[in-house]
Amino acid sequence: MADTVVRTRKQPAAQGTPKGVGRLPRAAVHHPWWFALPAIVVFAGFFLVPNLLNFYYPFTNWSSYHADIAFTGLDNFRTIAEDGSLLRAIRTTLVYALLAALFQNGFGLVLALLLENDSRFNRFFRAVFFLPVLISALATGYVFQALLDQDGAVNSVLGTDIPWLGSTTWTLVIVTLIHGWKWMGLSMLIYLAGLKGIPGEMLEAAKCDGAGPWRTFWSVRWPMLAPAVTFNVTTALIGSMNTFDIVQATTGGGPAASTEVFNIYMFRIFGQGLYAQASAMSLVLFLVVVAVAIPLVVGLRRREQML
Amino acid sequence: MTAVWRYGRPCLVVLLAALAVGVPLWLVAVTSAKPQAEAIKPNLDLPRQWQPGSNYADAVSQGEMLRGFLNSLLVVVPSVVLVLILGAGAAWVFARRKSKLVSAAYALCISGLLLPPAVITIVMELRQLGMANTRPGMIAVYTGMYLSTSIFFMTGFIRAIPMELEEAARIDGATPARIFWRIVLPLLRPVIATATIMVMLYAWSDIFYAFFVLGGGDRATLPLNLYQVASAQLYLNNWHLVFAYVVVMSLPMVAVFLVGQRKIVSGITSGAVK
Question: What is the mean pLDDT of residues A168-175?
């Protein structure tokens, strides 16, 4: 690189001075920090700072009933632990995230394998299966409420009278299936991208060695899909822990709070004006996500490198 | 085996598409054209009496649809523009400079990919800044939240762009600002398309954060309006209106997708799965 191009005001020295003296490093001149600064400021101000504040307000009595905010220690945590909502929300959210990630990735992978080749037929149906991603999660929730209501379309087609959204055990599973349905198109696209990245010679070689479709899948495709799996599983698992719209629109957290994930709880309690208590739940969500995300990312990365 | 696959696969695909996507969309389409009496119990029958026009007109008048549409545009468009421009600037620096400070700043800025936004304390902070219940407040929250996504995608993309392109311009005497506008941004086009679609997708359909930051009222976005229309559902049984609303709300996203379809695929390919 031509050093003469590096022009800065701090460079009064003549050409003869030793390199690096009295001048800014090249990177600072060519890629100055101020290009990154606005993003850093906005991100810090409206993402990091609230997350830091979230380590303080759960320990106060902030609510719509108090004019002043006073420090109250662990009271809020004691309340949510004693009324059972803390453990229930953790359990519900973790089950939701696991099942939602499973369904989203399962559906996505099957669709990607079905629609792998670039034909016009396949391209059309890829777009069809991507449609649910484009419909808002809230709308998706209402569509499935209409389908699965006891008076809804599914029961009217089957001639049954099943309360699909009324079981304290199975409704959670059904809602995660809906979550999987809504996001399967995105997983499919990423798996398609992963499949496209597998070198053709590799599949040829497997074929020459007499490997059938199953053998090819397990020995070649699946291992080569590792980066796509990492990305998909991580985003699905972490993303679905932050779920709200689908659950709110289908069940609103019910029946009997059996689908009350963290965000549904926060929404409900915030609506009652108990801000600090909602904030306590938000801190728990943060900690649970961190506890799940770190081992997950580390583990999946290590798995990728081993393959 | 291969013959079964050759003919079985398309049949399976069509069947799956019809059941999994066709049935729900069919339900939306027919219900949005039914009179209220027929729509009370949603089913897959064709409307006996077609009245899509009056349903959509009702959704517009009773559901405040036009105002909601405008409100959505007023927060989503600035958010997307900010996410893209600020994100590109940061990604450029993060991709090109190498130091511990840069890696730390990068790690911090993409932490939003994993960490959940602290929505309750955002409300607190916005109140203190006088930005609660305002559009600038909503835009700031969306921008802060989705910057991580755009920085992550763009940094990966810029790393793959050869440095020589920038160096050539530099030898011709271009300033960093000029290089950024004339070389880096145009090269980012595919990943900008992906980021635009992703951020639009999230922000256009978001109700959770909009509820906390904007609340209802004059600034309510489309999803907040839909929520209100559907919450009245309990008393009014207005599935026909809900689904008319769903159709209108979804169409802009479908249009954006159709326009940028090619690019979203290539952007995801290059950004997410290296």
Answer: 93
Taking the C-alpha atoms of residue A74 and residue A86, their distance in angstroms, rounded to an integer, is 13
The SS3 of residue B182 is: helix
What pTM did the predictor assign?
Answer: 0.88
User: What's the pLDDT at A265?
Assistant: 94
Taken as a whole, chain A contains a residue count of: 307
Q: How far apart are CA A213 and CA A234, in angstroms?
A: 28
CB-CB neighbors (< 8 A) of A133 in chain B = 201
| b/e sequence B93-122, b meaning 16+ C-beta within 10 Å | bbbbbeeeebeebbeebbbbbbbbbbbbbb
Alpha helices (H) in B63-184, listed in sequence order: 65-96, 100-109, 119-129, 135-159, 164-171, 176-179
Distance from CA of A234 to the nearest CA of B (A): 9
Contacts of A144 in chain B (CB under 8 A): 24
Out of A45, A244, A286, name the one closest to residue B118 (CB): A286
The C-alpha atoms of residue A282 and residue A51 are separated, in whole angstroms, by 9
- Tell me whether the omega of the peptide bond preceding residue A255 falls within 30 degrees of 0, making it cis: yes
Q: Does A181 touch chain B (CB under 8 A)?
A: yes
**Distance from B20 to chain A by nearest Cα, in Å?**
8
CB contact under 8 A, B171 and A282: no
Q: Is A218 exposed, middle or buried (0-12, 13-18, 19+ CB in 10 A)?
A: exposed
A2 vs B contacts (CB less than 8 Å): 171
- The mean-pLDDT minimum among A168-177, B8-17, B55-64, B223-232 falls in B55-64
- Taking the Cβ of residue B1 and every Cβ of chain A, the question of whether any pair is shorter than 8 Å is answered with yes
Q: Are B264 and B193 in contact (CB under 8 A)?
A: yes
Report chain A residues whose CB lies below 8 A from the CB of B13. Answer: 114-115, 121-122, 125
Reported as a pLDDT band with limits 50, 70 and 90, residue B270 is low
A285 has a chain B CB within 8 A of its CB? yes
**Using alpha carbons only, what angle is made at residue A17 by residues A15 and A21, rounded to the nearest 5 degrees?**
115
Taking CA atoms, what residue in B is nearest to A159? Answer: B43
- What residues 65-104 of chain A have any CB closer than 8 A to a CB of chain B? none
pLDDT tens digits, residue range A274-283?
Answer: 999 999 999 9
Looking at residue A254, what DSSP letter applies?
-
Dist CA B31 CA B60 (whole Å): 17
**Cα–Cα distance, B89 to A87 (Å, whole number):** 43
Is there a contact between B272 and A128 if contact means CB atoms under 8 Å apart?
A: no
Q: Which two tokens stand for residue B137?
A: 């407040």
pLDDT digits (tens, 9 = 90+) for B42-93: 888 888 888 887 888 887 877 788 889 999 999 999 999 999 999 999 999 9
**Residue of chain B whose Cα is closest to the Cα of A135:** B250
Query: Cα B267 vs. chain centroid, distance in angstroms?
Result: 15
CB contact under 8 Å between A27 and B96, yes or no, is yes
Check pLDDT > 50 for residue A220.
yes
